[in-house]
Amino acid sequence: AAMAGYGWARAVRGLLLDVSGVLYDSGADGGVPIAGSAEAVRRIKASGLKLQLCTNETQATREDFVRKLRALGFDVSVSEVTAPAPAACRLLRERGLRPHLLVHHDLIPEFAELDKTNPNCVVLGDAAENFTYANLNEAFRLLIGMEKPVLISLGKGRYYKETDGLKLDVGAYMKALEYACDVQAEVVGKPAKSFFESALAELGVPAEQAIMIGDDIVSDVGGAQQCGMRALQVRTGKYRPSDENHPQVKPDAYVNNLAEAVDIILQQL
Amino acid sequence: AAMAGYGWARAVRGLLLDVSGVLYDSGADGGVPIAGSAEAVRRIKASGLKLQLCTNETQATREDFVRKLRALGFDVSVSEVTAPAPAACRLLRERGLRPHLLVHHDLIPEFAELDKTNPNCVVLGDAAENFTYANLNEAFRLLIGMEKPVLISLGKGRYYKETDGLKLDVGAYMKALEYACDVQAEVVGKPAKSFFESALAELGVPAEQAIMIGDDIVSDVGGAQQCGMRALQVRTGKYRPSDENHPQVKPDAYVNNLAEAVDIILQQL
Q1: What is the complex's ipTM, to 2 decimals?
Q2: Among A127, A141, A179, whose Cβ lies nearest the Cβ of B175?
Q3: Judging by DSSP bridges, how do beta strands B14-17 and B165-168 pair with one another?
Q4: Chain B contacts of A187, Cβ < 8 Å?
Q5: pLDDT recorded at residue B2
Q6: Chain B nearest-CA residue for A144
Q7: Domains in chain B, start-ordered, CATH in brackets?
């Protein structure tokens, strides 16, 4: 029987999980798992619910990212990860675009197959320490020199939380280039609708039967709801109490962490 | 007698001049004068017109800036320079603000008198190579940790031209922090009305009798016109032909360079 107040947890067949701030807090040390999350992933799989990780992570290839998560105790595989770089590669190929990459060094292998000579677009990821003045200026000069500047941003997050504190995310640098070049970036990754639709296709469950669980009120919760999914905000990762007064976005429910969300959802099965 | 088409040049008693892109093109090598500009400054002074430099330069103290301009052949003095850092110091003092500075190393002496312990605002200048990821992240963390974040930006230019090409200006980084922290920066410098009003007060001429001459269609031309001045765009510095189709701003006239502007204005005296 449905428990009072948990109507949002009914009729679920699959879950999309954000990773950083939900499964673990990232950091230079490799990061630390969030208490109960590794066990929660195991319980989801044991329950028969489908699961897909839906991440804007662009500091590593999917292979390296999964290796790191497995080392932290998470039972996940590469096919269970939807990430912006492979989606961007599909888009670049479809449109015959040759990217100049301003991304984290460890992401570069994802673009190995693409022609990068004489670039006709800029691809921006969470480059972190690679966001030097010289590198941002190089991307700026390429863009402003194009007849029709094309800027593709892998996500548009404002910041994320690492073990040693908050870090500026790719969205801040996207805004810098948008302003300097008077262009609008195309976002590949959350909260873009096409990205959530890819994740749902890989999950194999329609939007009405899926729940997104994330720590970002705009990219995770708002984006998923725009696609017809339910969405929960966890009070871990970059969650801040002021998120609960967001003027545009209201999650279907707040949960203290992934483990609590899974407790409630499994009780409703 | 007024020459046909030069009505904009009548009844002038003083000129405000932008510096980078009008007097000289800046660069790591100290920059190079724009042909005819040093002679034009001399002719303005000889004519009895008043002159004030109105610059968003924030890579040096006014003293060092004037020393550089004099070495390039410009007959100018410190009292003839209106620049953002002294204006920001006045504002910080009036409001009891203790700044964290993200500015060019050579600008720091302008803030020597201010208390910078336990900062309650961030002051952003054209920090150039100081715009590392670590430095921008430090400013971000301070801002997002404030109960009421205060971000003061010394100008909001998109880019400027140096001898080796276009360079990202402070406005791009202002937009990055505005987005990351969900705040609106307070701009000290062009195109802020209060900044032009300070420059006019130092010029000692009312807006209706002054002409602003600059290479930036928005900061120079648009800002000056908002204050009731006439404004010319020179076709030097960062000028681009597409500026002539700007959707919001139309200068009172275009001139090829400062020398041509001064030719026309002196003929109308």
Answers
A1: 0.90
A2: A179
A3: unpaired
A4: none
A5: 44
A6: B166
A7: 12-56+190-267 (3.40.50.1000), 95-187 (3.40.50.1000)
